[in-house]
Fold these 4 entries.
Entry 1:
Amino acid sequence: MSDAGGLPSTVAFRLATLGAIYGDRFAARIAAHDLKPKHAGLMAALEAGVAASQQDLAARMRVAPSLVVALADHLVGLGAIERRRDPADRRRQVLTLTGHGRELLRRCAEAAREVDEEIAADLGGDRRAALHEALGVIAEREGLPTA
C-alpha cells in the first residue's frame, strides 16, 4: 500500500476506527441483556466447542485468565453458563453453556446481524460478499472462528 494517503488510508487504521464505531453499536444493542461483547465472545467460544476450561478459554480469546474469571462470574450470575470442577483434574474449572446462555447468544447474533446490515448498507451484493470473504480469510489466519 502506498504512503501517499497517510494514516487514514491504511487498512489497520480503518479497521481500528470502524471496529470501534461498530463495536460500540453492537455493545449498545446487547447491553439490554446485561452483556458486553467479550461476554458474547466467551459464550460463542463455548458453543463452538472450544476448550472449556477457564485457562484454555483465556488462551483462545487472547485475554488474561483473570478477565475470563470475571466474565464467567458475570455469566454464571445471569444463568448463561455453569462452572463445574473437572472430574479428571479437580483444580480445573470447566464452563458449559446453559439453555439460557444459548438464547442470549442467539440474541447477540441477531444484534450483530443488525449491525452487519448497517456496515454493508451502501455495498452492493458483490462488494458485500467480497468484504465477508476477505474478513473470513484474515480471521482464519488469526485462528478466529469463521462460521
Entry 2:
Amino acid sequence: MNDALNSTLKIAGMGLQAQATRLRVVAENIANADSTAATRDGDPYRRKTVTFDSVLDRSLGVEVVRVKQIGRDRSDFRLVYDPSHPAANDEGYVKRPNVQTLIEMMDMREAGRAFEAGMNVIEQSRAMMSRVVDLLRS
C-alpha cells in the first residue's frame, strides 16, 4: 500500500509541475499583452503556448503528464492605429501582441483548478499514510 501512495504522490507532483509551467507561461503572456516593438520593422511580443504529452514513467508503470513544448502562437498580430508610436508603419498602424487577456485568464483559471486538484490528491494521500502509520502503532 505504501508503494501505491508513493506512486500517487509522484504522479500528482508531476501534474503540479506541468500546471506550474502553464501558469508561468500564462503570467508571461499577460505581462506582455501590451509589449510592442521599439522600431518600425520589429514584431511585438508573440503569445506563448504550452503543449502537454503523456509519457510512460517506467519506474511507476503508469503514464504521466509532462510539458511537451513551449511554443509560439502563430496567429496574426492585431493592428492598432497610433501614428505617433515609434513602431508605427507608413499608414500609422502599430502591430500589437496576439495575446487576448480573456483567453489567458480562462487558461489561468483552468490551470489553477488543475493545480488545486493535484494538491488535494497529495493532501488525501498524506492523510491516508498518516492513518496507516497510526494503525501500525496501535
Entry 3:
Amino acid sequence: MESAYYIGIMSGTSLDGVDAVLIDFGTEKHSLVKTFFLPYDNAIKSKLLALHHSSNDELNTAALLSNQLARIYVTAVESLLRDSTVSAQDIMAIGCHGQTVRHCPEINGGYTIQLVNAALLTELTGITVVSDFRNRDLAAGGQGAPLVPAFHQAAFMHSDQRRVIVNIGGIANLTYLDPFGEVSGFDCGPGNMLMDAWCQLHTGKPYDDNGNWAATGRFIPSLLEKFLSEDFFSTPPPKSTGRDLFNFKWLESHLQDEQPEDVQATLMQLSVTSISQAIQTFYPETDEAYLCGGGAHNLYLVNQLKKNLSVKKIALTDELGIPADWVEASAFAWLARQTILKQPGNLPAATGAKGQRILGAIHPA
C-alpha cells in the first residue's frame, strides 16, 4: 500500500523561520502527526533580506544560501521524525516551498525565485522532494501565487456556508470558499511584514506581541490614505505581491516625522483595512472568516478586524481542524501529494493561470 505520509516545509515572507509538518493523508480527514518550528538566526535572515535587492555577487550568495537552507530544512525533517514511529522510508515526499527572495510576476513575462537546493535536501534525507511549485503556474500565465487557496478548498470547504480563509503572514491573502459558486483568492496586501520590520527597528523585538505597542499609538488617517494610494490596492484580482513592493524603502518613502508608535498603529490599520476592504469589495456575501498565519495571534489586529467585518463568525482555523500556525506548511505537504498523484495543485481563479496545472519539480529519492 502506498505511503500516506507527507512532510510540508514552509518558510514565508516574514523570514521568522521554518514551519514543518508531518501529515497522514491516509485518514478520512487528514491528520497532523507532528509539527516543528525552527527559527532563523539573525545572520541568515540578514543575508536573505539583502537578496531582495540588487547587489554584487548575487549568484554566488544565492547558491550558498540555497545549500544552507537545504541543511536547515534537513534539521526540520530530522526533528519531525525524531521519537516518532514514522521513519524516512515511510514518507512519500517532502513538499518544500523554499525561501522566496524575488516575486515579480508582472515584469517581462514574470519571474519568481524560491531558494533551496532540493537535490541536496533529497540526498541528505533520503526522501523524495517536490519543490519549485510556482513556476509552472507562472508559465501558464498565472501569478504563481497564492497557491494555498487550492488546499483551503480541499481542507476547509463547507456545504452551505460561504467562508473566507484569511492567511495573515508577512503578506496577507484571502481564499473565498463559495459552495454555490467559484472558489477564488488573492494577495490583499501587507500582513505582518512591515509591522515586524518597524517593531524590530524601534523596539529591538522581532514582532509586536499581541499588537501591544501598536495599541499605545494613534493611527494617522492621512498616512493610511498615502499607504492605500499604492496602485496594488486598487488593482483587481488575481494579484500577488511580496517584499519586492512592500519593503522598508516603500514604508520610508511615505514617512515624515511621525512618532514610531503612531506609525505602528497605522501599519496595523493598513493590514486591517486592506483585508476588510478586500472582503467587503469582492466577497460581500461572506458568512464566516477563519484566520491563520502568525497575525492570527495578534489580538489587537484580530479585534480590529472584528470591528471592521460584518460576518456571522470570525475564528481561527483551529476550529476547522488545522491550527492557525500550521496551515501553510500543511498546504505544501498537500501540494507535494498532488504532484506525486499527478493531480493539479493550482486554482486558476486565484492565480490567473490559463488552467489547472500539475505543479512542482520532483527530485526522487
Entry 4:
Amino acid sequence: MYLDLALRISAAGMAAQATRLRVVAENLANRDSTGESPGADPYRRRTVTFANTMDRMLGAQTVAVAGIGTQPGDFPTRYEPGHPAADAEGYVKTPNVDSLIEVMDMREAQRSYSANLSVLETTRAMLTRTIEALR
C-alpha cells in the first residue's frame, strides 16, 4: 500500500534529522571545551552527511545518515596565559564551533523534521478516513 510507504519514508527523514539535531547539540555543548594540556587540540566540530539510499524492502529511495565526520581547518586561538592549556606564548586553542552556524543548522533540521511530521500526520489521517469508509 502506498500510504504505508509514505509513512516509512517520512519516518526515515525524521530519523535522519534527529541524528542531525543530536550532533548540533554535541557541538553546542562542547563549544567552550579546550585541550587538557598546552598545545593540545580542543573539540573539533562534527558534521552530518546524508545519502540517498534505495530501501529494497520498501522499494523506494529514502534518506539516511551516510556518516558523521569532523570539520577540518585550523582552530581559533585566544590569549589567556593563565589557562592550563595555554602554549608558551599564552594562547589557547578553542573549538572550531560557531554558535550562529549551529543555530542555523538546528533551525534547518527542525524545519525538515516538521515537514516530515506533517507528511506523516496527513498520511495517518488519510489511512484513518479510508478505514472509516470501509466500515
